[in-house]
From TrEMBL:
The keyword Lyase does not apply. Its cofactor is Mg(2+). It catalyses: ATP + H2O = ADP + phosphate + H(+). Keywords: ATP-binding, DNA damage, DNA recombination, DNA repair, Helicase, Hydrolase, Nucleotide-binding. This is ATP-dependent DNA helicase. Residues 196-378 form the Helitron helicase-like domain. It comes from Brassica napus (Rape). One of its GO terms (biological process) is telomere maintenance. Belongs to the helicase family. GO terms for molecular function: 5'-3' DNA helicase activity; ATP binding; hydrolase activity.
Length: 701
């Protein structure tokens, strides 16, 4: 596991070491190359001579020598350093420096191998002020270090020569996206640094896997990539948001009245926005959003922890096939954990395995040993609360399962759930009497006055994983309920955001500048009687706020409103579809006859509309029964009058054991298949056996 503390940056020294110092890093390609292998060993030992020749601090000559020869042959940066060596030999007194170029004219979407002349140049004399500021300039001999820019095209090739043997380009600004139908619709046609690294961390059949199989070096690569992305974000904020400032409306008006025109010193400067993940304002917003959900739904009912298990069979199969350990592929661990977490949340919130939920949220952390870990909060529906101790015991237990009755569950609990003294093994390391991490034994579950439940027992900083998680843009915080941020301020104290270069009169003269969401609520209450019956917090449930108009508008969608306004339109569509199913002429006169024949009352229309809505919701994993404000389908609501008669006749024949043969005639679309399904389900629910067969036609095949 690799952990990084503090700032991450890369430095390069001069081409040759100062007097009295030993060569190291890139200098090893230039100084005393006849003894390069020995010099590399000395560099690892801080300049001290190695003791043996065959094995140098664990570095084997038969491995190091071929690697050096390979880099000399194919790596363009090594070739340039070798050229510097040759130039030193020919002109020892000449002063020159090496410039590693930061720009490239090659297409970043293809794997073009760079040449030595494209990546670096040896330049005699002093510095050229016309050079790109991001170019790396290595002087002949100095005691100073040169910092490599994070977006330098050679950043990766210089740091990881064994991973990028051919000197492949790293990230650079302006890499175009591949042209597809989806990409044509996007506003941005270039990829970000995060997208670049996420692309490089994928395993593809037609690409080399040197990077992904490099074990600890891959861990370092992920940490390096993540910190580079964060540093690049912070630099962007520093360079592009230094001009943003904020102040109250009254303060800006006072500046205008005082004749002040310059706003460079007005108000406070923005340092780190709330959109920067992990920043103070971001964390505060996440906390306030969580508290808003608690205020609406009450205290959470269930707190669930979910930790990645490196022994998951999917992980072990994947890693065993490649001869790797779980620590070697933090990217795969994160992706597997995300899939498992999504599946768990689906089971909890969609399948309702613990009861119907009203809301949910989770946050992802990373343990010291490097495994992702989720803390989940569930807010249960009022019908699925756990008010009694018996309800609690149905979903949670601190009892060790009986090994003879359920050996599989016993093994899982023994391996995963026992922390501290092991009652099954008194010689375990955690069984000492001094260990205080034990739970108090209780004969039964109890709920204290402060609503904290005590469960019963019946007598028995990992950086590389966190970096992978962020590079893949997986959420650190998740909540199922949207939270609307409502502004609140005293008169004249609303916050105004402006640029330091703006003039006071230009800011004050902005259209609707003094209007805010809070003031728009007062204006709404003046003209809307229904709004006056609501509190400020309830307004977003029925109205949407337009930032451009600075006003609230009534929501056009909402189950109670949609149903009352649109069921008639839905029923008209049902009539049209029914006419086409009967394959009758669509003339104006015949339509009236068809409508008269259908004899659809208002209740029938509503019923058909509900059936169609239920079909659409079922396709998306939902149902009308999940929403209290929607009308519910009555029992057997899908059966029309004739279907109901047939259903009752057949069911009564089965119940009374009369038997019989029934022939149901009807053309396509009248609901025969639905009737068979309904009969089969009704009988099977009672424990009877139903065999559906066909004697002729396609169905018999």
């Amino acid at each position: 596991m690799l952990v990084l503390h503090g700032e991450n940056y890369h430095l390069m020294g001069s081409l040759t070491p100062p007097e009295g110092n030993y060569a190291k890093f890139g200098q090893l390609y230039i100084v005393d190359t006849e003894n390069e292998l020995q010099n590399r060993s000395n560099a690892l030992r801080n300049g001290k001579n190695a003791q043996t020749e065959s094995t140098i601090d664990g570095l084997k000559k038969e491995i190091i020598q071929p690697i050096m020869m390979m880099l000399n042959a194919v790596n363009p940066y090594v070739k340039q350093f070798r050229s510097a060596r040759d130039r030193f030999r020919m002109n020892p007194e000449e002063t020159f420096h090496m410039r590693i170029i930061s720009r490239s004219d090659r297409d970043g979407r293809t794997y073009n191998m760079p040449t030595a002349s494209e990546v670096a140049a040896l330049i005699p004399g002093d510095f050229n002020l016309g050079m790109d500021k991001r170019d790396i300039v290595l002087q002949h001999k100095s005691g100073r270090l040169t910092r490599i820019d994070e977006i330098h095209i050679s950043y990766l090739a210089l740091q990881y020569p064994l991973l990028f043997v051919y000197g492949e380009d790293g990230f650079r600004i302006g890499i175009k996206k591949g042209v597809t139908e989806a990409s044509k619709k996007l506003k941005k046609d270039t990829i970000s640094m995060r997208q670049f690294f996420a692309f490089r961390m994928q395993e593809r059949e037609n690409e080399s896997h040197v990077l992904l199989y490099s074990r600890r070096l891959f861990q370092q690569f992920i940490v390096d990539a993540y910190t580079t992305i964060e540093a690049n974000k912070l630099r962007y904020l520093q360079l592009n948001q230094t001009c943003l400032r904020s102040d109250s409306y009254d303060s800006i008006k006072e500046s205008e009245n005082a004749g002040q025109s310059d706003m460079n010193e007005q108000g406070q400067q923005f340092v780190l926005p709330a959109t920067f993940t992990g920043g103070p304002r971001y964390m505060k917003n996440m906390y306030l959003d969580a508290m808003a959900i608690c205020r609406h739904f009450g205290f959470p009912d269930l707190f669930i922890t979910f930790t990645c298990n490196p022994k998951w069979p999917e992980l072990t199969r994947f890693l065993k096939k490649r001869g790797l350990n779980s620590d070697d592929r933090p990217d795969v661990i994160c992706r597997m954990f995300k899939m498992k977490l999504d599946s768990l949340m689906h089971d909890l919130t969609k399948k309702n395995i613990l009861g119907k939920t009203a809301s949910s949220m989770y946050t992802v952390e990373f343990q010291k040993r490097g495994l992702p870990h989720a803390h989940i909060l569930l807010f249960m529906h009022p019908s699925s609360k756990f008010p009694k101790t018996e309800d609690i015991d149905k979903i949670i237990s601190a009892e060790i399962p009986d090994k003879s009755l359920d050996p599989d569950l016993y093994d899982v609990v023994k391996d995963m759930m026992i922390h501290g003294p092991d009652v099954t093994n008194q010689t375990a390391p955690n069984s000492s009497a001094g260990n205080s991490a034990t739970a108090t034994w209780a004969a039964a579950s109890s709920v204290a006055a402060n609503s904290v439940a005590a469960n019963s027992a019946l007598g028995n900083s990992a950086m590389e994983t966190g970096g992978s998680w962020r590079i893949f843009k997986f959420p650190i915080h998740y909540r199922s309920t949207a939270v609307e941020k409502l502004s609140f301020h005293l008169p004249g104290k609303q916050t105004i955001i402006f640029k330091g270069k703006d003039k006071v009169k230009d800011v004050v003269s902005r259209k609707l500048i003094e209007n805010t969401m809070f003031l728009a609520w007062f204006e709404l209450c003046k003209v809307d009687a229904f709004a006056r019956t609501l509190t400020y917090i309830q307004i977003p449930n029925y109205y949407t706020y337009s930032k451009s108009q600075k006003k609230f508008n009534r929501r056009k969608q909402g189950f109670s409103v949609v149903w009352e306004k649109t069921w008639e339109l839905l029923s008209e569509d049902i009539k049209y579809n029914r006419r086409h199913r009967f394959n009758r002429p669509a003339s104006h006169e015949s339509s009236f006859r068809e409508l008269a024949g259908l004899k659809l009352t208002d209740n029938d229309k509503k019923l058909y509309a509900l059936i169609e809505i239920e079909k659409l919701m079922k396709r998306n994993g939902s149902s009308l029964s999940l929403y209290e404000s929607m009308p519910k389908l009555p029992a057997n609501a899908k059966s029309i009058e004739n279907q109901r008669k047939i259903y009752d006749e057949i069911i009564s024949a089965v119940v009374e054991d009369r038997g019989g043969m029934f022939f149901v005639y009807g053309f396509g679309g009248t609901g025969k298949t639905f009737l068979w399904k309904l009969l089969s389900a009704a009988l099977r629910c009672k424990g009877d056996i139903v065999l559906n067969t066909a004697s002729s036609g396609i169905a018999s095949l």
